Sequence to fold (101 residues):
Amino acid sequence: MKRVYLAANLADAQIAVDVLAMRGIRAHIFNANAVGGLGELATTQIWPEVWVEEDADIEAAKQLLDEIHAPASAIGKRCPQCGEENPGNFLSCWNCGQALS
Ligand SMILES: [Zn+2]
Fold:
């Protein structure tokens, strides 16, 4: 068992586990019920953790999780005409209007 992912919230952790399960990788969520403890503990955020059962699946799991957490729009496109960086979902350059491939 090894931790492969620290989720922002429980829904995020569940998505990660579901995606891994679709590829046949068995994973579990830990700390699922830790948020909202008693007294001072309640102010300390504890992130849900995703753990993979088989050590052999760790690399594949990390790669898969990287993929689902890297939206296409975050990958910039450089304009071939003016060289400005554009968000990945732009069809034409914000600066000069050149069509982006
Ligand atoms: Zn441009």
The beta strands are 2-6, 27-30, 49-52, 77-78, 85-86. The two ends are 43 Å apart (CA to CA). The pocket of zinc ion is lined by residues 79, 81-82, 84, 93, 95-96, 98 (CB under 6 Å). Helices lie at 10-22, 58-68.
